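Researcher: I'm comparing several assemblies side by side, and this is the next one on my list. It has 301 residues spread over two chains. Same procedure as the others: predict the full complex and return the structure.
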Amino acid sequence: MKSAVIVFPGSNCDRDLAVAFEAATGAKPTMIWHRDTELPDDIDLIGVPGGFSYGDYLRSGAMAARSPVMQAVAQAADRGTFVLGICNGFQVLTESGLLPGALLRNAGGHFVCRDVALTVENAQSAFTSRYAAGEQISYPVAHHDGNYFADEATLDRLEGEGRVALRYAENVNGSARNIAGILNDKGNVLGMMPHPERVIEAAHGATDGKRLFDGLVEGLLARA
Amino acid sequence: MKARIFVTLKGGVLDPQGRAIHHALEGLGFDGVNDVRAGKLIELDLADGTSDEDIDAMCRKLLANTVIENYRIEKVA
């Protein structure tokens, strides 16, 4: 079970995500610099971390999405490698076209940094298998541009195909249909604004995020 | 040759920045402002002979996110 975490200039959740991956897989992930053009062979899981890649220049995630390593990530995702994008990582995945829609400035205009109640909408995905459908959990959010936007047809398609993984139980940022996290059509890419990697140990004050990583790794090992 | 790229949010896409500017204008006593939408101006200094297709591709591939934004290209002599 090999994992990797992509590191852009301005990433700041890369080490937290690496800790979460290591706790779940038992092995240290490979840290991949944004200028790398190839990923190591047989990577099973790629993390695109939170932060402020390239200082959020132009649009959040826009520059990172065009960096050399993201082409390799897109190719890996196409081959079925699992990709988890959190916060800025979600923005990077939408900007690179791996996930539909876009993340706009929060509707309230403010940076939102606090715990938020979420509803697990789809508990069938590889990422959410250890949660129950409809279960309410809590992850922290910390973002300025988390207002999920897509046209109505895209939103209908996401809902119809069960690709809304997580919804905000309280809409903290104006997201369309309270969407907090979405899957790609094959179910191997998840992008989400909330931070599961910040709630994986008792010392964090909560452990709701641990099941995401444990369930994902369990599922990947079962597939192999 | 130079080109100016105007990037604006599509109609219907919420613009909290524009709304904040609107409120600030009202706070300054400007009552006649109906709406404010904020956008970006990107100035490109281009090699002579850069094709319109290339400039358009720059907009589509990076400068604008066409999911949420429109762009307009203005070539400056």
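Model: For your comparison table: Residues 3-223 of chain A form a domain with the Rossmann fold fold (CATH 3.40.50.880).
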